[in-house]
């Protein structure tokens, strides 16, 4: 993965011009007042800095009690270990996936995500520990029939089968009548925008098309739990966008566990997540908790003053640096003191006061930044 410094801005919406203080004079004054311990910034409206994002992030291997509602967790893993010979792929993982959540499984290559998916899907048995899906063991195939949909990372489709026939067959295996199976198959294929491939042989699909057929079979029959191991890997941006919309549309109706190396994507669609590193859960909780501890904003300046020292005096700013080639001020801040929008307001106010000319503002990569801090 690239380092955060090297990454281009992640497409965050530029800050709205309303960040300018309401009481600001029409003409920017010269820097008349030297900053004291903290730059003096008028409060935003009647309220002080938002504390909405101030919750401490849950870390470590403690078992959490995540609940979106009063229902029991859809997935419950207790002290799960998976060894392959000397390799410990999953090391004492304990976590709950709240019912109805979209749960991100995050981690670098080899972190243990696919191994975890394989155990949840019942393809692999844990070496030790317990896993419950909908209060059943993953191996309880009959009891879970039609309730768990799985898109494996490298799903292989039967090359000689036509797409429609393959999906109808799978739907019938779930216990549907031939007529219902056809309706269900058409519905999921339409959902992945693959209606035209009904008579196409699976072996002739492109990588992205095959991935979408794999996704369609995971959605077949509206399962209560849907496990998607890198569903957008290798998809073109428009199709990847479509897959994100599909996931979002299932939110609340199904419980979705999804892995991806696109952390911006996970931040957008997931409400909860766990970060794995070398088989160990290094953080898990709600997305707000995971992204709360640190954050950054970047401000691009046109030619003119660069009042970096003044920016550093803003309350909540932890570091501020200036990258000369890109003319970007990189600011990290403590979200227990101010959220990103409040920090943009404070920074733009100080820059405005010191006659810096702003040519762009972007919010930082909350989840990406956090994952970089947590994994090596
Ligand atoms: N069948 C296997 N036999 C031996 N080792 C395995 C096997 N499957 C996985 N591993 C090892 O377990 C570890 C975790 O692999 P896993 O595929 O779960 O990682 P991952 O997080 O899905 O990575 P990626 O992001 O690359 O998909 C790795 O060290 C891998 O080499
Ligand atoms: Mg994997």
Description:
The chain is an alpha/beta fold. The chain has 11 helices and 13 strands. It has helices at residues 113-120, 141-144, 163-173, 178-191, 207-219, 237-250, 263-269, 287-290, 308-312, 340-353, 366-374, and strands at residues 75-84, 87-97, 102-106, 128-133, 148-151, 225-229, 255-259, 272-277, 280-286, 295-301, 317-323, 328-333, 358-363. A 6-stranded mixed sheet has the order 5-6-7-3-8-9, sandwiched between helices. It has a 4-stranded antiparallel sheet with strand order 11-12-10-13, with helices on both faces. β6, α6 (237-250) and β7 form a beta-alpha-beta unit. The radius of gyration is 24 Å and the shape is elongated. The protein starts with 74 loop residues before the first strand and ends with a helix. Residues 1-36 and 46-65 have low confidence and may be disordered. The structure holds adenosine-5'-triphosphate and magnesium ion.
Question: TL;DR?
Answer:
This protein is an alpha/beta fold and 376 residues long.
Q: What distinguishing features does this structure have?
A:
six-stranded mixed sheet, binds magnesium ion, 376 residues, Alpha-Beta Plaits, 13 strands, 27% helix, alpha/beta, binds adenosine-5'-triphosphate, single chain, four-stranded antiparallel sheet, elongated, Rossmann fold
Write the layout of secondary structure elements.
Blueprint (H helix, E strand, L loop, with lengths): L74 E10 L2 E11 L4 E5 L6 H8 L7 E6 L7 H4 L3 E4 L11 H11 L4 H14 L15 H13 L5 E5 L7 H14 L4 E5 L3 H7 L2 E6 L2 E7 H4 L4 E7 L6 H5 L4 E7 L4 E6 L6 H14 L4 E6 L2 H9 L2
Parallel strand pairs: 3-7, 3-8, 5-6, 6-7
Antiparallel strand pairs: 1-2, 1-4, 8-9, 10-12, 10-13, 11-12
């Amino acid at each position: 993965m690239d380092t955060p410094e090297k990454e281009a801005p992640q497409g965050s919406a530029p800050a709205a011009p309303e960040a300018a203080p309401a009481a600001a004079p029409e003409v920017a004054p010269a820097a008349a007042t030297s900053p004291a311990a903290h730059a003096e910034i008028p409060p935003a409206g009647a309220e002080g800095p938002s504390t909405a994002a101030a919750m401490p992030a849950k870390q470590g291997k403690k078992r959490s009690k995540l609940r979106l509602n009063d229902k029991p967790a859809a997935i419950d893993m207790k002290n799960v270990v998976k060894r392959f010979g000397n390799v410990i792929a999953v090391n004492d993982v304990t976590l709950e996936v709240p019912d109805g959540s979209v749960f991100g499984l995050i981690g670098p290559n080899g972190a243990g995500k696919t191994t975890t998916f394989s155990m949840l899907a019942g393809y692999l048995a844990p070496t030790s520990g317990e896993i419950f899906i909908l209060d059943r063991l993953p191996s309880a195939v009959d009891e879970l029939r039609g309730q768990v949909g799985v898109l494996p990372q490298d799903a292989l489709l039967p090359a000689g089968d036509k797409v429609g026939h393959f999906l109808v067959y799978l739907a019938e295996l779930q216990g549907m009548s031939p007529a219902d199976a056809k309706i269900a198959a058409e519905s999921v294929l339409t959902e992945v925008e693959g209606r035209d491939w009904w008579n196409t042989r699976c072996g002739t699909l492109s990588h992205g098309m095959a991935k979408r057929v794999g996704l369609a079979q995971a959605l077949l029959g509206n399962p209560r739990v849907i496990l998607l191991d890198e569903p957008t890997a290798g998809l073109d941006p428009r199709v990847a966008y479509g897959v994100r919309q599909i996931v979002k549309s299932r939110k609340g109706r199904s419980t979705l566990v999804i892995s991806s190396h696109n952390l911006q994507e996970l931040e957008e669609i997931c409400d909860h997540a766990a970060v794995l590193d070398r088989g160990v859960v290094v953080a898990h909780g709600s997305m707000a908790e995971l992204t709360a501890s640190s954050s950054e904003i970047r401000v691009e300046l046109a030619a003119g003053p660069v009042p970096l020292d003044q920016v550093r005096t803003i309350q909540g700013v932890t570091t501020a640096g200036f990258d000369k080639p890109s003319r970007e001020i990189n600011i990290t801040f403590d979200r227990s003191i101010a959220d990103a929008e409040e920090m943009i307001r404070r920074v733009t106010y100080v820059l405005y006061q010191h006659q810096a000319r702003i040519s762009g503002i972007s919010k930082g990569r909350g989840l990406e930044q956090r994952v970089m801090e947590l994994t090596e």
